[in-house]
Specification:
165 residues; globular
Length: 165
């Protein structure tokens, strides 16, 4: 992996090693009183032209290439922030990446119909906070378990690759 190199254990990212994991992006609550939610997209969404680069590429490489990543894992930006700490360039600033810009671009692309994704709602205030605070790993783990059940029951058509229009 060009951007990050080897971590403290000598492990390197192998981008695309786990292409069938998911990226969960926090969705702000709508003005109509709707609860906060999560947009779930496939990793390829981060490589779409609507996402600023190299930001999307670095997120993709960490998401799909992390040595501990498993198929069907649902990973949030806060999780990637925690995982990044194992590398010498241990913050997004040091890597020169704006993960929020990439995440916002994914949401905007999904809202326009450029990207496929699945909206899951009903986050509690604590779950919404956990998506923004890397230290809240236990709450994210509970949320991940709950959303994984919803993902397994969802219509699989939302997963088909983006047309790239």
């Amino acid at each position: 992996m060009g951007q990050l190199g080897a971590n403290a254990q000598g492990e390197v990212l192998k981008a695309g090693r786990v292409p069938d994991c998911y990226f969960g992006v926090f969705l702000e609550p709508a003005d109509d009183g709707q609860d906060a939610g999560v947009l779930v997209v496939g990793p390829a969404a981060l490589l779409h032209p609507v996402v600023p680069q190299p930001d999307g590429t670095v997120l993709y490489e960490l998401l799909t290439g992390h040595p501990e990543r498993l198929p069907q894992d649902l990973v949030f930006l806060a999780d990637l922030s925690v995982e990044l700490r194992a590398w010498p360039a241990d913050t997004w600033v040091k890597v020169g990446v704006d993960p929020q810009a990439a995440s916002h671009a994914v949401v905007a692309g999904w809202q326009r119909g450029d990207l496929l994704g699945l909206q899951l709602g009903g986050l509690t205030a604590e779950e919404a906070l956990a998506l923004q605070r890397p230290a809240m790993t236990l709450v994210r783990a509970w949320l991940r378990d709950r959303l994984a059940r919803q993902l397994s029951q969802a219509d699989p058509r939302w997963r088909r690759p983006s047309s790239g229009h």
